[in-house]
Amino acid sequence: MQTPEDFISAQFTRRSLFGQSAMGLGSAALASLFGQQSQGEGISGNGLPHHTPKAKNVIYLFQNGGPSHVDLFDYKPELSRLKGEQIPESIVGKARFSTMTSGQTARPCLPEISKFAQHGQSGATVSDFMANTAKIADDLCFIKSMHTTQVNHAPAITFFLTGSEMPGRPSMGSWLTYGLGVESQNLPGFVVMTSRDKEASCGQIFYDFYWSSGFLPSKYQGVKFRGGGDPVLYLENPPGVSRNARRAMLDDLSALNRDTFSHVGDPEIQTRIAQYEMSYQMQMSVPELTDLSNEPENVLAEYGPDVRRAGSFAYNCIMARRLVERGVKFVQLLHAGWDQHRNLNTQLKVQCTDTDAPSAALVRDLKRRGLLDETLVIWGGEFGRTPFLQGKIEEIKSWGRDHHPYAFTVWMAGGGIKPGMTYGGSDDFGFKAVQDPVSVHDLQATILHLLGIDHTRLTFRFQGRDFRLTDVHGSVIKGILS
Q1: Is the full-model pTM beyond 0.85?
Q2: Per-residue pLDDT reduced to its tens digit, 346-371
Q3: How far apart are CA 132 and CA 119, in angstroms?
């Protein structure tokens, strides 16, 4: 029978074996932990960036739930002409939908519930629900031919953010901070903030794997800022512990950890050292970050009335601008509430009111400060909504639209994106992407390209395989590059 001593010895031996084996891979990725920029090189040893980047930072305004493209950006007169009539079977074909409409026999065409108009020199069609976004149309590139593979929220969001429908892969922010390192020494390279509609109209959950580092060292995991109280827990020292005392404690703890690493070689020990150090630095940097007292009132007003309410989308947007100003590479905002299955006529406008002004203000603010050229801003959800009605045409109060992965719209701005243009298009019903279709992996490849990365070369070996964000797919969307 194995004794406790034998068990502990065996565990240490295996840990040592894996740790020492990982040192060759981990050390190249971790580089120096103090005062130097970490630089990932993938398993191929190709240094990054691979080419001159157009963007330095990314702000991803992810709209959980699936904003309705046919109500907001993709104007389709054919839906008005055929209102209430069955969408042609030749259009639907064998497309699959969520369980909420998969058994629905009637699929009546439903036109936009808003009003569309053309805006700016580009003539972009934008709904009156997005009046502020319409005013910056000439700064935006609308991609109206996005399509994806998933019809349910969690796998579809996971696909966009990690390149796989299954949880467990590194998120995009983790890949970027692993590959390019971080600039700020007192804030994380990858920050996440979440918000939701005040009415709590849908029950979507913000899963931690949306910003996970997956199989990359956990140093590259996104740091989630809370929506209330201190953005990060334990920023204050305990009573009786001075900052100098905390510094001395961390130095001693770091020395012990470094000594353990020299014997064990586990890269997660290096992560622990780095995270302790980052936490110490954030005790000073986060209070300054969240202090809006020096922001001009006219700027705050652009973000809307919720800008001072911690945890709101407006507050998160101005925090995103302040984060990239301070060297944070990837800021991921997730806002839930776009899931209008039975409340399209009421909740869609509310959702737009909460998010339209802050999104537009962020783009204007970055541009005014000379940051838009080096900051890539992305707005969009995990899919669109069906051009046909979920429910019955005569029951106006309960109109809704189901999830729709076959065509939808995202917009991008700054960071090497050609402004004032529309790329791609859907068919006459907004059902399928037919002109220059753009897949999720295409979008990811383009984001990496703008940051100076060849998406086929940023890889990490795990379980005997070379993994990358775009798996074995994806092509850069050259038509949208400036």
Answers
A1: yes
A2: 999 999 999 999 999 999 999 999 99
A3: 11
